[in-house]
Amino acid sequence: MSATRTLISPATLARPRGKAAYWTVFTAVVLLFTLAFLFPVYWMVTGALKSPDEVARTPPTPVPEQWRTDGYTDAWDLMQLPQHLLNTVVQAAGAWALQLVFCTAAAYALSRLRPAFGKVILGGILATLMVPAQALVVPRYLTVADLPLIHTSLLNDPLAIWLPAVANAFNLYLLKRFFDQLPRDVLEAAEIDGAGRLRTLWSVVLPMSRPVLGVVSIFALVAVWQDFLWPLMVFSDTGRQPISVALVQLSQNIQLTVLIAAMVIASIPMVLLFLVFQRHIIAGITAGSTKG
Amino acid sequence: MTKTAERRPVTKAAAHPLPAPPPAGDLRRRRLADQARAYGFLLGGLLCFALFSWYPAIRAVVIAFQKYTPGSDPEWVGTANFTRVWHDPEFSAAWRNTLTFTLLALLIGFAVPFVLALVLNELRHAKAFFRVVVYLPVMIPPVVSALLWKWFYDPGAGLANEALRFLHLPTSNWSNGADTALVSLVVVATWANMGGTVLVYLAALQSIPGELYEAAELDGANLLQRVRHVTVPQTRFVILMLMLLQIVATMQVFTEPFVITGGGPENATVTVLYLIYKYAFLYNDFGGACALSVMLLLLLGAFSAVYLRLTRSEGDA
Questions:
Q1: Handedness of CA A140, A143, A144, A145 (dihedral sign)
Q2: What span, in angstroms and rounded, lies between the C-alpha atoms of A109 and A103?
Q3: Does residue A1 form part of some domain?
């Protein structure tokens, strides 16, 4: 990779002046990135370790005078973080599982089983990509509050997160495109061997689709964990709110250090997920976009 | 595309000639069974799309022309919702703020990642570090970024003013001043979201053939000329895509104004989506909320349609 020619030629860089300029720019970018992206995170993590007096002091102390963990323990107990984290995990896990089952099945049907009106259905699904999710929150809320025909309300129920999550055109299309590209002869061989549709999907298609399933899984989990407006609308019951909604609701009347500690705790799961899977996530973002 | 898909069964039949054609009734039954199975696979997904995407889209348009209170029968009111919303002083403020926000987000939130990606593409060391660090804020929940910056913008002990004092510069009201609030929110949104733009643009830069730069250099093009005549034209498509996506995303901004400013000061940061939320959950006026949603929908739908048209034609090429 490093051998490919970019904007500046290797010859220019090899000259003493080029080298000096390169290292100057490199140092500047490292400093800039540290200051812009890492320092705010550092400030948050250490802010929660300071005493309430120290955190309000001007000029601020760059390093906590004494490392106090009561911000974190108070946040854990006072803000019922275990409850809200559990709510978020349940909501995210259910949305992920249902999306994997229903989106995969639907994408497989559209890609391989040639259902009647398949093109119309696919068109209808792709059309929802044009309608940004947030613009429809109010009518969707009214639908969830009073489901047509069965007249049941899903408000304050994790199903209000799980079911709408399945209607994810982007993930479904990603899966369908992947299934479209699977070699025909492998699938036909499975059919000739007498495997049914479900069997083919389960033991031939899915094992071949691990990369795309990974990408879809990460997108599904992150989407639920990061969402705010939709859970704010559907969970009025404090005990059922995910962490994002609870943080904002509780931020009004809680000590700053405790709030900051709660913010750190709320960030840990996604940041960990990112650090563990960063190669896959970054590859997924860049691959999905350049393929066109 | 369509034609080959339809012809496929015929060629397949020719490739594997069946020993004896089964009776017509059997074939029809088998095709029905195939269809039933296909729809069995589709059912769950279809139901969810119908309930939570298609039906709400239709309902938004219907309720926009109704007086709607949950629990009681809706009443047709013609265009009354639209006129009422239109004359709300917050309406023009919300649209002005949303459009200004989008424009500023394009200027700041697009120029910065563009330049960063250009520079990062030239650096040959610590590549993984840069990529992880720039994407880190994207993985922090948006609510946490918003609360974090609300704290930074605090006029007292906030980090933003501390930094200005440290540099002996005059302090600012940041998100608490009517003039500076919107820009302050754009900074938050840019900080939180630009990782994705940088990574995507970086990938596009890496697909530019090196010979083009070499040829340009031989022709005597300097650095800026190479950016203008090689880099930009070569990545025009990705730039356009990212811009459209960013426009659609920033026009739906909600979390930052809701968490940081609450729409204030003096409606300086009320956005269209925020106003929709207020109509529905503060004023209990679902007709007005849906009228606003339809307007936002039409505008964003137009942008998305352009985006899809462009990606579709590129995909076919």
A1: positive
A2: 10
A3: no
Same domain (yes/no): A64, A96: no
A116 assigned to some structural domain: yes
Token pair in block for residue B37: 């199975």
Identify whether B43 is part of a domain.
no
Instruction: Give B25 to chain A, closest Cα distance, Å.
Output: 19
- Output the six-digit token pair for A258: 């405790």
Whole-complex ipTM: 0.91
Nearest to A133 by CA among B296, B312, B46: B296
Q: Is residue B294 very low, low, confident or very high in pLDDT (cuts 50, 70, 90)?
A: very high
Interface contacts (A, B; CB < 8 Å) = 309
A148 in the same domain as A239: yes
Q: Do B56 and A126 touch (CB under 8 A)?
A: no
Q: Do the chains contact at A7 and B213, CB–CB below 8 Å?
A: yes
Chain B contact for A138 (CB, 8 A cutoff): yes
Query: Is there a single domain that holds both residue A112 and residue A222?
Result: yes
Closest among B214, B209, B205 to B235, alpha carbons compared: B205
Pairing state of beta strands B66-67 and B75-76? antiparallel
Give the model's confidence band at A288: pLDDT under 50 very low, under 70 low, under 90 confident, else very high. Answer: low
In a domain, A261, yes or no: no
Given a cut of 70, whether residue A289 has pLDDT beyond it is no
Contacts of A225 in chain B (CB under 8 A): 141
Domain boundaries, position B227: 90-316
Per residue in B120-154, pLDDT tens? 999 988 988 999 999 999 999 999 999 999 999 98
Tokens of B111: 């120029």
Q: How many separate domains does chain A show?
A: 2
Sign of the dihedral defined by the CA atoms of residues B101, B103, B107, B113, in that order = positive
Residue in B97, B180, B189, B199 with CA at minimum distance from that of residue B145: B189
Chain B hits for A243, CB-CB cut-off 8 Å, are 141
Sign of CA dihedral A130, A133, A137, A140: positive
Task: Judge if A17 and A108 occupy the same domain.
Answer: no
Q: Check whether residue A98 and residue A206 sit in a common domain.
A: yes
CB contact under 8 A, B136 and A6: no
Element (H, E) at B40: helix B24-49
Q: In this complex, do A244 and B142 lie within 8 Å of one another by their Cβ atoms?
A: yes
Joined tokens for residue B304: 């998305």
Q: What is the DSSP string of B74-85?
A: -EE-TTHHHHHH
Tokens 């002996």: give the residue. B168
Question: Contacts of residue B44 in chain A, CB cutoff 8 Å?
Answer: 98, 101-102, 105-106, 166
Residues 65-94 of chain A with CB under 8 A from chain B are none
Q: Residue B68's Cα: distance from chain center in Å?
A: 29
Query: Cα separation of A275 and A70, whole Å?
Result: 27
The whole-angstrom separation of Cα A257 and Cα A251 is 11
Question: Is pLDDT at A102 greater than 50 in this prediction?
Answer: yes
Report the chain B residue with the minimal C-alpha distance to residue A262.
Answer: B144
Question: What's the total number of domains in chain B?
Answer: 1
| Domain assignment of residue B55, yes or no | no
Least Cα distance to B202 among A6, A273, A223 occurs for A6
| Domain range enclosing A35 | 10-73
Q: Do A289 and B203 lie within an 8 Å CB cutoff?
A: yes
In a domain, A175, yes or no: yes
